[in-house]
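Section 5: illustrative case.
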């Protein structure tokens, strides 16, 4: 049953196909269909090439190049800038260590005595103020500090985590000409601000709170364990807010040691979050909510909760303060999944901020250039839609050009053929087997000049339009009789000439030389009494046309 049903379906299909092929379409409709199919074919071919070559995905590849280039630029600038700050911090640490040792030596003291004789702390800090200010101006950072491993009063609250020192802020580090108005005292004795005419910051405090402060404890720890490496230790720490203030910064610190290797404090610089945003922001265009983050890297995870983040524009959906990103490779870009559920797309690179060759582990940092996934997908979809829109416009333009071409060039030929069909030469339908030569079509569109003059009788002149004459070769029967006088070889050449073949084509088709073809051509013209190939073809077409008309009558 299945075989019978399949055969019946095949029979129905072939019958419908035969009926469709039997339909008669006008020449105009055929030309329209041909032009439409040509446009659609070209459009489909172009679309296939775009997909096969990955051109429609070039948006992603182009953005990857832009992203990677921007990331490399910011990373190299950041590494160079923070490297210079590190070297300046080491020089400042050497100066402060030497000055402090000399200051205490004049008083027959050592750094270890600072915990017992705290009365000299204020004088010591005041003596190092100019050194800290000079280093701050030299580094062009937003803050410089020194912290001594001692407190002014052991009786004060939380004295165990309180340490004396100086912390000076510079709100305009890029200004060459400075004034006291741009410097503020964040930590240190109040009398220093009064004597130096400094503004005391809103969150000013007398001493540092060093509870859970790695920037204070870690450099001293490593300097004590590896005293020979102390002059090389400069550690960058994760971004943090200074205790009891809104000031968020990333600090680098170096240990302070005396000649004998005793550690008595730290000093260093900071890069504020505001300065980072202003200096190291991304410049990539066309991406909403793009940002870069300088963040700690822990086992491949990027910790944005202790990161310096720089947005290109003011945005509403900044990352949550507890966001941790897990990068996953996704085509050219990385897909970053956060613990808060938000997804980001971008790239990241591990930076070389810490000294190389240290015998202990230090915190690694990564620079990430990120965009929320929803914004990345929106840009990608929008540009794909733009490409498809351009392609559609080009296709429509091609169709309009085809229509105009048909109207200007094809339509006059069709009208000329219709005019001939409706003229006095006969209204009989043309046989589909008659091939219309291009010279004949040109003749129909306006070149109705006599091919060979004939004598016009009165009867003929009455049926002839003014300016129109016909070729005089006798009757059609006479022409047919002349055809019979041709030899078999000449008849083959004649038939090919009638079909529009050239002498070279006939030579290749019949496998004879070109000279033989020319000889046959000369004999054919003589026997048929034709002056040219055009006269020969015109006479043959007229003979076939009149023969068809006679059979229909």
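Designed sequence:
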């Amino acid at each position: 049953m299945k075989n019978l049903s399949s055969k019946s379906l095949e029979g129905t299909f072939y019958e419908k196909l035969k009926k469709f092929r039997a339909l008669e379409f006008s020449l105009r409709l055929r030309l329209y269909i041909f032009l439409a199919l040509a446009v659609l074919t070209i459009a489909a071919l172009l679309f296939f090439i775009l997909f096969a070559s990955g051109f429609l995905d070039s948006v992603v590849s182009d953005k990857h190049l832009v992203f990677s280039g921007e990331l490399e630029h910011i990373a190299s600038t950041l590494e160079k800038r923070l490297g210079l700050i590190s070297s300046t911090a080491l020089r400042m640490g050497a100066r402060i260590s030497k000055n402090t040792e000399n200051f205490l030596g004049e008083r027959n003291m050592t750094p270890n005595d600072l915990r017992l004789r705290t009365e000299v702390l204020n004088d010591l800090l005041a003596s190092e103020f100019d050194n800290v200010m000079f280093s701050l101006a030299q580094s062009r950072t937003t803050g410089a500090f020194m912290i001594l491993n001692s407190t002014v009063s052991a009786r004060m609250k939380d004295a165990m985590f309180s340490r004396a020192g100086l912390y000076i802020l510079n709100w305009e580090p890029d200004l060459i000409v400075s004034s006291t108005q741009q410097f503020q005292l964040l930590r240190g004795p109040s009398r220093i601000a009064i004597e130096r005419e400094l503004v005391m910051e809103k969150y000013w405090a007398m001493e540092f709170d060093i509870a859970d402060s790695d920037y204070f404890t870690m450099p001293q720890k490593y300097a004590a364990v590896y005293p020979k490496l102390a002059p090389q230790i400069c550690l960058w720490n994760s971004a943090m807010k200074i205790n009891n203030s809104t000031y968020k910064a990333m600090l680098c610190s170096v240990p302070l040691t005396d000649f004998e290797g005793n550690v008595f404090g730290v000093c260093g610089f900071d890069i504020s979050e505001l300065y980072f945003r202003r200096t190291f922001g991304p410049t990539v265009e066309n991406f909403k909510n793009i940002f870069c983050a300088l963040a700690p890297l822990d086992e491949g995870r990027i910790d944005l909760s202790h990161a310096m983040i720089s947005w290109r524009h003011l945005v509403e959906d900044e990352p949550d303060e507890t966001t941790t990103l897990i990068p996953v490779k996704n085509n050219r870009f990385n897909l970053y999944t956060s613990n808060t559920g938000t997804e980001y797309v971008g790239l990241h690179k591990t930076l070389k901020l810490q000294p190389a060759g240290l015998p202990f582990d230090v915190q690694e940092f990564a620079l990430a250039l990120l965009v929320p996934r929803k914004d990345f997908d929106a840009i990608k979809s929008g540009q794909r839609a733009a490409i498809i829109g351009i392609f559609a416009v080009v296709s429509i333009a091609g169709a309009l050009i085809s229509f105009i071409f048909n109207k200007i060039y094809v339509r006059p030929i069709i009208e000329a053929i219709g005019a001939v069909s409706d003229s006095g030469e006969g209204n009989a339908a043309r046989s589909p087997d008659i091939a219309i030569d291009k010279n004949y079509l040109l003749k129909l569109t306006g070149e109705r000049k006599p091919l060979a003059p004939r004598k016009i009788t009165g009867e003929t002149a009455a049926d002839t339009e003014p300016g129109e004459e016909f070729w005089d070769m006798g009757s059609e029967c006479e022409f047919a009789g002349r055809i019979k006088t041709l030899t078999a070889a000449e008849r083959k050449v004649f038939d090919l000439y009638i079909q529009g073949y050239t002498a070279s084509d006939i030579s290749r088709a019949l496998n004879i030389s070109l000279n033989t073809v020319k000889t046959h051509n000369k004999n054919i013209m003589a026997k048929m009494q034709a002056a040219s190939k055009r006269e020969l073809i015109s006479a043959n077409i007229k003979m076939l046309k009149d023969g068809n008309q006679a059979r229909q009558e």
